[in-house]
Amino acid sequence: MKKAVDLVMFDLDGTLADTGRDLADAVNHTRAHFDLPPLADSLVRSHVGRGVEHLLKHSLPEETPKNFLEVMRVFLERYENHLLDTTVLYPNVREALDYFHSKKRVVISNKMHRLTVAVLRGLGVEQQFDAILGGDSGPEKKPDPGLLNYVLEHFQVPAASALMIGDGDTDVEAGKRAGVFTCGVTYGLGSREELVAAEPDILIDDLAQLSRYFC
Q: Which of 44, 46, 112, 121 is the most buried (most CB within 10 A)?
């Protein structure tokens, strides 16, 4: 039997959009600025999902925290001008959004709000969402449930009728702490092992599978 939901909350990086290559390119541009050797894309991707501060502190430990403001400046200048070079929607994103067209649809990302909007706008799906929140839209990022709780209250939807979809353990933990149903996607940027260990209510390999479980 399918579970009825009134609100569907999506993560961005690794869930709706494959942003890994552009993030890795911006990180390695920043490392080159400081005369540091490049990192493998896979290593950079492993640090995605907890916000830009986490990404840079773990991708440029040689330069942070002493030069963190300069690291941030160089990275953002590069990334904001190249965030759609290779970034694409994952398969069946548009179909999933269409499937939930009668529901409230929200993006809750740990990415900065302006970057989150820029990616969604550039990929042509910004208007599909009733709200878009980034890591700087509230005092705490996921796994803190604050932004999820704000959305639940704003749209007056009980937690039992809401769903959080993401590729990372941070998404699952935030969803559980907010009391909503959680769905992990295995195709994203996050660690599959950490995602499984977070114990989402369901795991899917493709967003097309959402129609099997929810209505």
A: 44
User: Rounded distance, CA 110 to CA 103, Å?
Assistant: 23
The pLDDT value recorded for residue 179 is: 98
pTM value > 0.90: yes
Give the integer Cα–Cα distance in Å for 154 and 56: 32
* DSSP 8-state class, residue 2: P
Cα–Cα distance between 89 and 120 in angstroms, integer?
9
The length of the chain, given as a count of residues = 215
In whole angstroms, give the CA distance from residue 141 to residue 54.
Answer: 11
Strand bridging mode 88-89 / 17-18: antiparallel
Residues identified as active-site: 11
Residue 26's closest CA among 61, 67, 76?
Answer: 76
Give the pair of three-digit tokens for residue 155: 């749209």
No. of H helices and E strands in the chain?
Answer: 10, 8
Question: Are 165 and 141 within 8 A, CB to CB?
Answer: no
Classify burial at 180, counting beta carbons within 10 Å of its beta carbon; exposed 0-12, middle 13-18, buried 19 or more.
buried
